Amino acid sequence: MNTSPLASSSNMKAASVEAINMTMQFGDFKALDNVNINIRAGTFHALLGENGAGKSTLVKCIMGFYHATSGDVLVNEKEVKLSDPKDAQVLGLGMVYQHFTLVPSLTAAENLIISRADAPSIIDWKAESKKLQDFLAKMPFKIPLHQPVSQLAAGEKQKLEILKQLYLGSRFLILDEPTSVLTPSEASEVLSHVKSLTQAGEISVLMITHKFREVTDFADEVTVLRRGQQAGNGLVADLTHDDMALMMVGQASENKTVERQNTTGDIILDLTSVTAPDRSGTKQINIDHLNVKSGEIVGIAGVSGNGQTELMEILTGQRQPLDGRISVKDETYSATRGEVKKYRVRYLPEEPLQNACAGKMSVAENLAFRNFDDTAIGQTRSPFWKNNSQINANAEKMVSEFNIKTTSIHSPIEALSGGNIQRAVLARELTGDVDLLIISNPCFGLDFSAVASIRERILDARNNGVAILLLSEDLDEILELSDRILVMSDGAITYETDATSANISEIGFHMAGQH
Known about the structure:
Blueprint: E1 17-26, E2 29-39, E3 44-49, H1 55-63, E4 70-75, E5 78-80, H2 85-90, E6 93-96, H3 108-114, H4 125-137, H5 154-167, E7 172-176, H6 184-199, E8 204-208, H7 212-218, E9 221-226, E10 229-235, H8 241-249, E11 267-277, E12 284-293, E13 297-301, H9 308-315, E14 323-328, E15 331-332, H10 337-342, E16 345-348, H11 352-355, H12 363-367, H13 388-401, H14 418-430, E17 436-440, H15 448-463, E18 467-472, H16 475-481, E19 484-489, E20 492-498, H17 504-511
Parallel strand pairs: 3-8, 3-9, 6-7, 7-8, 13-18, 13-19, 16-17, 17-18
Antiparallel strand pairs: 1-2, 1-4, 4-5, 9-10, 11-12, 11-14, 14-15, 19-20
Helix pairs in contact: 14-15
């Protein structure tokens, strides 16, 4: 007998979920401190907070991944005990994770069926296909059932993740940063469909997000956490972005507003007819033309996997071009250490702990990587001799100037938070004379205050005449920082616009490969 939740899902309605006095202690650390949140049936509720505010801990307690130290969970106003996520699923609670949990080699239909606890060992495809078609007919969005997931667009994969939870009978969904890999049009489409399901009373939604625009456009209510405590909540219609930001950081922002100066000068970086193999080895990166001038930020927008990583590797000397010319200040450039020093080129790569740091080495040592063998920092006897007192003095200066929070400059850099690792790498790369800065996803996964601080530093560098190439999958970041915006799709630059006249729909159109 088929006991899939699908059999009775059409008779189910949105569930209300409430967490009361939720407290979670890990040893001496209190991750949650008497937090209350009420997601009413049929509403779209947003959960905001800086990294480490307790958002993930709260939803893990609601879903049964964690057993709260104290507090209660109510589903449809009845207290429930959640020993594990299976208990949550039985009660109609489901979670869509930030990263896809689908099997790429299987079709959408196969992914749906194997997600069931009662998935048959031998599948009657004629019967199952009919049931799946009946199920999809009741859903606000469609996906190709018999196409391998690996061939689906990111937006279709996100829809499939949501459909999987509805197929399993979930009537309360937690969405964890659901639009992080989507184009603007895909994000709006997916969240609009989810919103329509809440308005129809089919589901209730709790969405974790960092994007105020998504909160304003789609959420009914918002709850904000700060340092494990509830910092505020209310109807979205009654709150401004400044109100929500103030709840998140607990005080008026001390970040200065950086005014954009008219500093554009000569071309510093130029790529002409550059080709290189992509990561799969089956396709090529083709950059016909790309340049960046001094005092200018050129932002490259694009959905993940369209060649941005390979472009960064080409510019850092980690991927050898097959053809074309890369020049800095009109001189051929191949990113050797000597050229980097000569032309004053610096980098802020994605995931800096993995790509720009030695995790086990100290903060001070990591801050000295650019200049430990310079006379000013350490060369007293030979290039192999480092002067620890000067390295430590250099670190103390950078820690102070860039507000890097660390217990000691002698602590391993891997002990720092993500935002402080990012600040440390930015401090190292922006200290001294810099003419070209190449950046990839500088604020990915960082909290509100860290993002504001890092973006300030980038704009300051631009105003001081630094040429900046910014590769980012965060379109809001591209729009905020850039003077010119390029779109990268399928390994090529497919569109260009001035930021002042940028049209988000047009950019999204090209990000989706429609050119």
